Each structure stands twice: as structure tokens, then as C-alpha cells.
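User: What would this chain look like folded?
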Amino acid sequence: MPVRPRISFARQVLILQVGVVVVVAVLGYGLVAWMLDGRLRDQYGQRALTVARSVAVDPQIAAAVAAGDPAGLVQDRAERVRVRTGALFVVVTDNRGLRLSHPNPLELGRHVSTDPSDALAGREVVRVERGTLGLSARGKVPLYGRAGGSSARSASGSTPARSTGSSGTCCARCRCSSRAPSCSASSRPPRSAAG
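Assistant: Here's the prediction, encoded as C-alpha cells.
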């Protein structure tokens, strides 16, 4: 039987030290990446919520939604907001969750792909969800009718940096009047990717 050469004690200590440094560095970089990913999702969620709120208080959109949008004004104005803000999408729905605007005109008149119930119930929400345009951070806001009740919703989305491996969206779906109140409830997007 051949005898294996023994590794000197100094070499064993060096290997152990290098191993510890590598493990600590990998864990440290992983923790920093996880924290930055969460912050990025929060920032994109708040951006989406801001775009959604701006669409929700537009009196021309509110009037068009209340009238059933026969002239396509909602689609036109939502697209202009989307292009100006760089949002992935700006979607306005009626009180049944049917799209009155979408970046893909083929989606108009179809039911939204994510749950609109919170915004239609009068609550603002921020979530990371997967919809027709992929994984994104979404802000959903109620749109109030002239009587003050939530009659539709506005949603918008924005895309986080590609390095996170996901895209983002901002959503604004609402029916509102010029006196649309602020919603009282909001939630933070989850740390994990879902959309």
C-alpha cells in the first residue's frame, strides 16, 4: 500500500483560512444582494403606486370611465402616461375588472390577469405579480365616481433593473372624480418574486 504524503499543518491552516474567507464573502454578497433586491422592489412598487395615483385623479379619465369610454379616451391618455413615465403598463379598468386601457390593444375589454378586488374595494395596494406582461411591481389604486364610491381601478407598472432577473410594472386602475380621496390601506410588495 502506498503511503499518502501528509499535508503540513501550516498548509492545512492556510486552506482553512481561505475556505472561511470564501464562505464569509459568498454569504456577505448574498445578503447584500438580497437586501438590495428588496429595496429595489420597494422603490419600483412605490413608483408604480405614484403613476397609478396620478392616473386615478385625472378628471377626464374619470368622466370617460363613467361614460363607458365610447371614444377610447382612456386608452389614449393611459398610453401617453405610460410612455412619459417609462412604466411597463398603465391599465384602467371598469368596476367589473374589464380593461379600458392596456399597452397591447388586443387586451382591451378582457378581464385583468391579476386580482382587482382590493382596488375596487377602495384600497391602494402594491404587489409583485405576474400578469400578461410578465413579472412586475404593481401599484393598484381605486378610481372614484362622482358619488364618492369606488367604481373602477387604475394600475401601473415599472420594470426593475434586469440584474434582478425580473421585470416590473406599475398599474393604475380606477374610476375617480376630481375629488378622489386618498385610500387608507396600502401594503408592501413581498420580498420574493411573484407576479
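The radius of gyration is 24 Å. If you want, I can go into more detail on any region.
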